[in-house]
Records
---
Amino acid sequence: MKRRTVIGLEIHVQLTALKTKLFCSCSADYRHSPPNTHVCPVCLGLPGALPVVNKEALRAAISVCLALNGRVADRLRFDRKHYFYPDMPKNYQITQYLEPICREGYLEIEYNGRTKKIRIRRMNLEEDPGRLVYPAGSPLHSPYSLVDYNRAGVALLEIVTEPDMESPEEARLFLEKLRSILEHLGVSDPSLEGAMRVDANISVEGGERVEVKNIGSIHEVERALMYEIVRQNSLLDKGVKPKRETRHWDPAHRVTIPARVKETEEDYRYMPDPNLPPVRIPAELVKAVAESLPELPDKRAERFVREYGLPRKTARVLVSRKLLADFYEDVVKMYGGDPRRAANYIVNDLLNWLKDYGIKALYSRVPPERVVKVLKLLDEGVISIRQAKELAEVIVKKGVDPEEYVKKAGYVKISDEEYLSRIVEEVFKEHPKAVRDALEKPKAVNFLVGMVMAKTRGRADPVVARRLVLRRLEELRARGASQTSSR
Ligand code: ADP
Ligand code: MG
Ligand code: ZN
């Protein structure tokens, strides 16, 4: 693994927030719809149908470009990219080739305590192809394939990075940053199935670059890259040079497999789309979009550090998903206590249990009020830190109200002095030797307090328990002294 690794990514992002497709008024919300119900002459590519650019898509693309620190083109121009495949009804895809809407951006990632710039070469606005559906799940096992054009024409951004990443982890960090930016911009929900698809390019020193196509999630990108590093290195170890090729990621078997031989640039026969003559992108539009940009993750994390006194690392975890950062701020507002305590509890305890449900289930599984209740119970000393940790699991998994749960489970601390005094007395009777020790050595007091805690199965308020033990010892001392003096 000592050979240098180079990674560059091509990311396809659907603009899922748009109501309609890129060039027609068909609904872009195609998920869960019966096949071929969101179609019209334009997105079916029928002869004579004319595309009209969706203005909202243009605005969304500009906002992403600005958020990626890129330069917005001054013209909007489209090209046809030809290929013959059943998911493509026109036999060409409308995309951008010579003049991408965005160039020369970058994102910063935090890696090994250092900030690293990942440059973005270009970003295209283009249309998504349709979808092939295999009745048996995979092409290998299906006797025929079906085609669904609901997705055809949905607005897509293709973001191409420079080969600036050197490890699968860096690629993951880049994609996580990008995902959070898209969430904050509100242009795409990358957690929807197929909304963020990645082609990962990877080469290892001494070999050619391999492109792993169409990986469906950030986690899978990291895995696919790790697999390729091992595969390419072991080829090189055997003296075989990895060749330039396209491969597919098979998530079920966690391997990459060679793909069909791809078209080269010439085969695509790019040409300007005559139905979409170039139009100027008004500087005022870019300015207006720039002014309406929301607070983005990096700035938000800085604010969390400044305003709430969070460690940078905690702040970064919170802003890694918009929903999580929103949730945190909701909790902070309702709670009114130490924002660091709230952050700690969410990041270190809640998130851990939420993994099984996914971040989107956050608000529905755990309303912010419930977290606030736990934090208050903790502040009031009703529950211990350990009990708060235990509560995280039950509130996420069982969806219970913490206050009620605490009462039922008998978490409530016993601070009733009368009751605890009786326990103390019992303990003193049962452990006369420990009592004699404690009268002499202050350290031995702990044993007696511990016995009181044990007898109440940890429910005694330890502060009260200690006070009562000390008081009882004082009484014994006083009695001992008076007995001596009366002798
Ligand atoms: P093409 O136009 O053939 O797709 P590009 O040069 O545009 O090739 O690069 C496509 C992607 O591959 C980019 O994301 C780029 O960062 C990445 N890439 C380029 N060279 C390498 C390399 N040697 N190793 C890994 N990735 C690379
Ligand atoms: Mg490419
Ligand atoms: Zn349509």
---
Amino acid sequence: MVERILVTGAFGQIGSELVPALQREYGKDNVIAIDMKKPQDFEGISYIFDIRRYDELKEIIKKHRITTVYHLVSLLSVAGEANPDLCWELNMGSLKNILDFAREFNLKVFWPSSIAAFGKTTPRYNTPQQTILEPTTIYGVTKVSGELLCQYYNLKYGVDVRSVRFPGIVSWKTPPSQGTTEYSIAMFYEGIPTGRYTCPLREDTRIPMMYVDDAIKAALMLMKADSSKIRTRTSYNIAALSFTAKELEEEIKKHIPLVVEYRPDDRQKIADSWPDTLDDSTAREEWGWSHDYDLPRLTKEIITNLKKKMKVE
Ligand code: SER
């Protein structure tokens, strides 16, 4: 059977890289991208509207005979704290609707959870797959609730929904957005053209991170895995890197001149509530997860690509 794929939040940080990967793998005509706005150079099938127009979404699912959804729409941690009601409405409302469509039309679903599902009471080092989940951000609350809702739809209705807890994703195609880990992207975006960056976190703040190519690889691997292997229906820990803001600065300085000033703001509290390192052995055992990028490779790749994009020598 041909897979016909719908991607929500298609032009955000992850979608901007996932959509082309899916187009390459399944063909341009089999990938439908939806988001609030689209980049001018996008080639493919897209719809531009608010995800909360659920009747319209349902018509698109029917019209294109969708079989699989990558549901990426989400307000991140910083944006969520600025508007908790909207964060709940968007993150949980859209997930519930997608899961109901999955029940009705027998769709397979990918939905990302996050390290934001963890909190201060979670073991900080080598955080286990099954552990205490008491987040203190509304974004984290939607991630824990979403994980449980996914598991419930799988147990109760047999919906084939799969999820990973993404670490901070470091990427370069889209500018940094309203997340806590996006400082890492901003360090490149501001550092490359100006040689300076003011970091909103302390220099010793260590957070689990991952290059975007590894994040895309994880989503595709998980969705291709045989369903019998997916024994975790909440969300899988997946790990790649874990670096401090200072370690990132030092790595970037091997390529370009950079002065970073550390001026922690509200984001520090959020970062402090997340773990330092994750134990992802369950994902490695159950569906063969492995990552490819270390910090030097990630840094080199982002600088090369961003210099080209920004037309900086
Ligand atoms: N990148 C997200 C954030 O910082 C974490 O999932 O909000």
